[in-house]
Amino acid sequence: MYRRKKEHKRGINYSLMLVGDSGTGKTTFANNLLESPIFPHRFAMDAPQLAFNPRVQIAKPTMVVSYNSKNGIPSHMAQFDASREHFEPGITITSTSVEIATGAEQPPSRSSMSSEASSSAQSNSHSQDKISFNLVKTHGLGENLDNTMCFDEITAFLEQQFDQVLAEETRVKRNPRFEDTRVHVTLYFIPPTGHGLREMDVEMIKRLSRYTNVLPIISRADSFTPEELIKFKRQIMDDVERFHVPVYKFEVDPEEDDIETIEENQALAMMQPFAIMCSDEKNENGEYVRLYPWGEMRVDDDSISDLRVLKNVLFGSHFQEFKDTTQNFLYENYRAEKLSSVSEWDMDKEKGESSKRDSAAPSLSNFASLITTGQFKSTNSLAMPPQSETPTTPDSKEISQGVSDSPALRQMSQSIRRGNEEIIQNIKNSPRTSTPGSPDKSKLRNISETVPYVLKHERIIAKQQKLEELEAQSAKELQKRIQDLEKRAAELKLREKLLRQQHLNSSNTSLNSRQSAQQSMAPQSKLKKEESVTDLASIVSGKA
Amino acid sequence: MSSETTLVGVSNLPNQRYKIVSNSGGTFTLMVCGESGLGKTTFINTLFQTTLKHADPQQRRHQPIKRTVEIDVLRAVLEEKNFSLRVNVIDTPGFGDNVNNNKSWQTIVDFIDEQHDSYMRQEQQPHRDVKFDLRVHAVLYFIRPTGHGLKPLDIETMKRISSRANLIPVIAKSDTLTAKELQAFKLRIRQVIEAQEIRIFTPPLDESETPDPAVMEHARQLIESMPFAIIGSETKFDNGQGSVVPARKYPWGLVEVENDAHCDFRKLRSLLLRTNLLDLVLSTEELHYEAYRRLRLEGSGASEDPSLPTRAPARKLSHNPQFKEEENALKKYFTDQVKAEEQRFRQWEQNIVNERIRLNGDLEEVQAKVKTMEEQVRSLQLRKH
């Protein structure tokens, strides 16, 4: 209860990721979920903006957090250009933060929000809360000829979020405003094939489930008749069994859960995978519908779509459950794996240094308590000012500096500095003083100080490599486009010459016609020039 | 009376032709191509109004998850009013199913080329009563109804097919797109097709040849509604007006397959069978086969365009990149194995040499011992004496 209060003060943090083939309705689902047209559709960036839901506010606009593509440009916002459509779009991951008011102060608009409000009221008694909801979307998956790159990019993104938390957790001085960006739930959109899972689906879910809870959902379920849908759901669950796909399962614990929860979970387990249909259009009653020539379909009709159930699961019944599994199970596994590898690395590095271990060091006891009591405490202490650590802070800082001053690291950091001056700014302060580490310090304390550093380093190196790659790619692309433009310019010049010759010929016959011709020619060439300029500008902006 | 005598009977030629054609029947080869789960099988069954092909999920269950593109030929004879049409339906299961779909069009393209090649070879024989003709008259390319546009895989595949056969793009499962979405989607596809110079099949619009304005109008309509948005269904429902039609029954309405307001199925059927079947066959013969033949006989190397069939379809399977990879892997395995064996032999040899050296050493030792013994014996004997 105490923790909950604490968390509420800071606002509840919740992160959802949408992964799936392009064209399976991720954007529409996101808009439906928030009941606001926040996300523009592909190729329809300047669509008219409809009214927003008053409960939803954009805290941070959509930004690209990670991308990779052959031409080095994030392509999710690209305008439709028929002549460039055969280029592979690569993959872009974007993140949008919104704040959702869950309070009951105003009458809930309708169906879905009411279910959300009621369930959140049931799960926590504080009503005037804001959920800071982070929505991560992937663009371009399944559109490339070779989608391996997309897989790597998404996995790397998720791992990076874990790394950030790990780095923060093990830091001596913690950032009170640290934002946990771990993805709690991932919705994987299965394209409505009617044939079970494809290789890509299986592979992707397997990769995702190492870092988040994966809920497979059937999107665009309006292409199935009720009988077909039942069959398709069964096939998918068969495939899940057959290929051992680790999706999130609604499990029951007969000893701990009450009857209500057990029944609910069993019902949900029967329902999986959820079949949803979404829409951007509203009818006169303000309901989201799909208008077909053969009828009108309401997206939140429980008899045909599981959309409301899904919303309820995401924001209500399993809200905390998803967060807990991420923290207690997935993150914990990752952390154990990572720390054991890092500490080995650390041990090698620390060879020759003092072996005296002071087990009574305050930071060690803190660390030990973290380990024994589980991770909730640690998130808690993330929020608290680092009271227990203050006594050791000054000298531990020196230690961290001392540790980081080993020749190997310095070499590494220098190579980075040469490569990328901007990134190095973050860690520049550390290798300045060169006080050797005090002889009495625990190994655990070493971990707590070096882990963030090591992780950061790894990340920076990886990032730098990627940036370099992307830069090279975009440079290549730029070169190509420049060549294209030059070619076009040459063509234009040629045409101009031809036209001029024609004018000269015609001027012999009549002076009037020549003048008019020249007038007509001038705007044309001007127009072409402008076009090329904007093209270049778009490249530059895309690169930036 | 007098007019009949003046006729020689030449005008009866079309009738003669009619008789011959109706006796011998016709052949039509249709290829369906597209990612799995877009309703290709259902469409074929809807088109011919019989269950030509069974959607068999049981078979699929036993396959591994990583799939290669296969070619699946199905032959059938359709009879209607004493006219029989031999239909070959070619399916391409497994296309676009994998993580890496690069080059997955190769199998399809090779198949089309191979048919042209085999026909050409049969033609070149001294006795050329061509018996085996599986040249593809029309390729239906199924586009996933994403509502966005064409994927690079679609574009690359369509480009390659369109230079070899009559390509007809269709939007599959179009009952997931509302009228507005469908319109925008169609427009984008048309733009891409135009910009990427994909040559799709269009019914001939030559006014001099077809003076009938109704035919012209029909053809124009067909062209306007490309790419066709289609729906397939094998089950029939009562449409509320007394007739039982193939349709899909949703809780929110009944989608009739043969209703022009719902989808373009009728238009596509008209293009494929009713009005333009002969156009499809003829253009395959005259355009695509001729182009292939010319390129093959002129020899390769002249054209740089990768989409054109410049090389002969390889008789081996090794040019398929997947097979090549496998081959390489096998080769590597083989050389590794050989190396390991050699290593083992060398070790063995070394051991033998060592053993020999050791034995030689032993021998020498023994000999030395014997010598010293002899020496001792001699000295003893000397002392004795």
TrEMBL record, chain A:
<feature type="region of interest" description="Disordered">
    <location>
        <begin position="424"/>
        <end position="445"/>
    </location>
</feature>
<dbReference type="InterPro" id="IPR016491">
    <property type="entry name" value="Septin"/>
</dbReference>
<dbReference type="GO" id="GO:0005935">
    <property type="term" value="C:cellular bud neck"/>
</dbReference>
<feature type="compositionally biased region" description="Polar residues">
    <location>
        <begin position="502"/>
        <end position="523"/>
    </location>
</feature>
<dbReference type="InterPro" id="IPR025662">
    <property type="entry name" value="Sigma_54_int_dom_ATP-bd_1"/>
</dbReference>
<feature type="compositionally biased region" description="Polar residues">
    <location>
        <begin position="426"/>
        <end position="437"/>
    </location>
</feature>
<feature type="region of interest" description="Disordered">
    <location>
        <begin position="102"/>
        <end position="128"/>
    </location>
</feature>
<keyword id="KW-0342">GTP-binding</keyword>
<comment type="similarity">
    <text>Belongs to the TRAFAC class TrmE-Era-EngA-EngB-Septin-like GTPase superfamily. Septin GTPase family.</text>
</comment>
<feature type="domain" description="Septin-type G">
    <location>
        <begin position="10"/>
        <end position="341"/>
    </location>
</feature>
<feature type="compositionally biased region" description="Low complexity">
    <location>
        <begin position="109"/>
        <end position="126"/>
    </location>
</feature>
<protein>
    <submittedName>
        <fullName>KLTH0B07568p</fullName>
    </submittedName>
</protein>
<feature type="compositionally biased region" description="Polar residues">
    <location>
        <begin position="376"/>
        <end position="404"/>
    </location>
</feature>
<feature type="region of interest" description="Disordered">
    <location>
        <begin position="501"/>
        <end position="544"/>
    </location>
</feature>
<feature type="region of interest" description="Disordered">
    <location>
        <begin position="376"/>
        <end position="408"/>
    </location>
</feature>
<dbReference type="Pfam" id="PF00735">
    <property type="entry name" value="Septin"/>
</dbReference>
<dbReference type="InterPro" id="IPR030379">
    <property type="entry name" value="G_SEPTIN_dom"/>
</dbReference>
<dbReference type="GO" id="GO:0031105">
    <property type="term" value="C:septin complex"/>
</dbReference>
<keyword id="KW-0547">Nucleotide-binding</keyword>
<dbReference type="InterPro" id="IPR027417">
    <property type="entry name" value="P-loop_NTPase"/>
</dbReference>
<dbReference type="GO" id="GO:0005525">
    <property type="term" value="F:GTP binding"/>
</dbReference>
TrEMBL record, chain B:
<keyword id="KW-0342">GTP-binding</keyword>
<comment type="similarity">
    <text>Belongs to the TRAFAC class TrmE-Era-EngA-EngB-Septin-like GTPase superfamily. Septin GTPase family.</text>
</comment>
<feature type="coiled-coil region">
    <location>
        <begin position="338"/>
        <end position="383"/>
    </location>
</feature>
<feature type="domain" description="Septin-type G">
    <location>
        <begin position="24"/>
        <end position="299"/>
    </location>
</feature>
<dbReference type="InterPro" id="IPR016491">
    <property type="entry name" value="Septin"/>
</dbReference>
<protein>
    <submittedName>
        <fullName>KLTH0F16544p</fullName>
    </submittedName>
</protein>
<dbReference type="Pfam" id="PF00735">
    <property type="entry name" value="Septin"/>
</dbReference>
<dbReference type="InterPro" id="IPR027417">
    <property type="entry name" value="P-loop_NTPase"/>
</dbReference>
<dbReference type="InterPro" id="IPR030379">
    <property type="entry name" value="G_SEPTIN_dom"/>
</dbReference>
<keyword id="KW-0547">Nucleotide-binding</keyword>
<dbReference type="GO" id="GO:0031105">
    <property type="term" value="C:septin complex"/>
</dbReference>
<dbReference type="GO" id="GO:0005525">
    <property type="term" value="F:GTP binding"/>
</dbReference>
<keyword id="KW-0175">Coiled coil</keyword>
<dbReference type="GO" id="GO:0005935">
    <property type="term" value="C:cellular bud neck"/>
</dbReference>
